[in-house]
Structures are given as C-alpha cells and as structure tokens.
Amino acid sequence: MRATAKLRALLNSGRITVAPGAYDGLSARLVEQAGFPAIYASGGAIARSSGVPDLGLLSVSAIADRFASMADVVGVPIIADADTGYGNALNAQAAARAFERAGVAAFHIEDQSFPKKCGHYDDKSIVPAAEMVGKLKAVRDGLHDADFVVIARTDAIAVEGLAAAIDRAAAYLDAGADVSFVEAPASEADIAEIAKRLPRWKLINMFEGGKTPLLPVSRLQALGYQLVIIPSDTQRAAIKAMQRVLAAIARDGSAASMRNDMASFAERETIVDTAAYLARGKNYAS
User: Fold this and answer.
1) Among 70, 55, 73, 52, which residue's Cα sits nearest to residue 107?
2) Among residues 100, 109, 160, 158, which one has the least CA distance to residue 131?
3) Rounded to an integer, what distance in angstroms lies between the CA atom of residue 34 and that of residue 74?
C-alpha cells in the first residue's frame, strides 16, 4: 500500500494517530521501531540538526533530500513540514511536487509570512487569507497522487485571535486542504472550541514547553482530533544525551561511565538493519 493510502486509512480508522517527530533516517527508524504508525518530519528539527534555527534558512532541495532519506528507510507514512511553501503560490506548487517525489504522505503548509518562525515563537506575521487560499489551490493542482494529504496550518491565533484563526482554517478546507491545523491554542477551552467548530480531519501540535497545554491523547480523541504531532521532543532528548556523554568524555577521557545510557554496538547495528544490507550485498557478489 502506498504511504498516502496508509495515512488516509489511519485518518479514516476512528482512532487518533500520534506521530512523534524525526529529522533524519536514524530518528525516523527509531520512531517506527517504537511502534508508532506515522512519523512527523519536523522542519524545525531538521533545521536545528543542520545547526541553524527554525527561521526558514534551509533550501527546498535540502529539505526534500532529507525527507527522501527518511522515507527510504521506513515503511510508515511521513507527515512533513512545508513551512510557508517557500514563497508565492508557484513556489509552493514546486515544493509540493518535490516533497511528493521525496515519498512523504502528507505535508502542512502555513499562512505565516516568508521567512517563517517556529509556531511557538513570538512576533509572528501572517499573509492575507486569500493569499494562502491561492497557495493551497496551487499545491492541490500540482500533486499527482489523489491520496496525498494536504494539511493547512494557520498561525493566526497569535495575530488575529482564535475566532479569526478558525475562520481561516475553514476557508483553507474549502480551498482543498484535507486537514486543518490551528497552531498554538493556549488553553484546553480553545483546543475544544477549534475541534467543535471545524469539520473534517483535524491535527494538533503537542510538545513539552510550548504554548499549548498538554492533554492526554484520549482527551484529544474525544474532542475530535485525528492527528497529534510531537515535533521536537525526540531531538531535545538526544541533545541532552549527547551533552551528558560529551561531559563524561571531557571529564574521564572516555564514555565508560555512560555505558548503560548508550545503545550497544550491536543494538546500533540492529537499528539500521546492517545484517540485512550485508545479506543483500551477498546476493550480488560474483
């Protein structure tokens, strides 16, 4: 089954789907091996893995290459971050085609001004709703797979308030989006209001330390959400782990004291499926 069809089956299943964040092939493998049915390819985490902040600094081709490297090593659908579409409607259409070729099953595009900021930063600015509608129509026209899932994100809460954000999300659904994504609601009441007022599939962003309060997955399902993304908690955990092992090396000259907190040599090779690659290589040996 194509990744796009797998994701639509999840959305139609009646069960909420949790998609933890990944930012490269290794982290994507770990999410899949942990048993999650979908992966969120976080644009912010991909930027930070390149050593830069989430400010729209990476090229479309660099991001598409990263998505392709992730899709190549997992079997579950990937939900990707397309930022603002990287320019006007034609830029968004070109990005949509590139990301479709990369093998992701869905992406979200947002109504921030380009270059964007992380959705939980302050001082965001947004484009007119009509401009975003045009981008969504261009994106839908540019895609080849009818099952590809287009997610429309609005950052309007921080600029225009909750009611305007919901109105924008509804307009974006009318323009061809399959899923609405209202970013950064600041209370459980707002989360519930969004779910109540918007039809069809809905996505919510949940991560530790953001502006949105963390709710149990069961509560989000009861409210009417179909997708939960957790963008960067995996990367933040990895940062702390690397800092601890580097501190041990600086202190002791080795990471021996961290042995129980590191994957073993064998565990690492199992994660990346080394044995299967070697066996496949033997099939082509002369």
Assistant:
1) 70
2) 109
3) 12
Average pLDDT of 10-24? 97
pLDDT value, residue 210: 87
pLDDT at 140: 97
Domain spans of the chain, in order of start: 3-232, 239-282
State what percent of residues in the chain have pLDDT above 90.
92
Q: Which neighbouring-strand residues pair with 80?
A: 41, 107
CATH fold group of domain 3-232: TIM Barrel (3.20.20)
Q: Is 137 exposed, middle or buried (0-12, 13-18, 19+ CB in 10 A)?
A: middle
Query: Which whole-number Å values give the CA distances from 84 to 18, 123, 160, 232, in the listed order?
Result: 23, 16, 18, 19
| CA–CA separation, 155 and 70 (whole Å) | 27
**Interior/surface letters 60-96, b for 16+ CB within 10 angstroms, e for the rest:** beebbebbbebbeebebbbbbbbbbbbeebebbbbbb
Average pLDDT rounded to a whole number, residues 158-180: 97
How many other C-beta atoms can be found within 10 angstroms of the C-beta atom of residue 208? 10
Place of tokens 């290459």: 65
Which active-site residues does the annotation give?
Answer: 40, 54, 81, 83, 108, 110, 118, 153, 183, 205
Q: Tell me the HSE value of 89 on the side-chain side, using a 13 A CA sphere.
A: 14
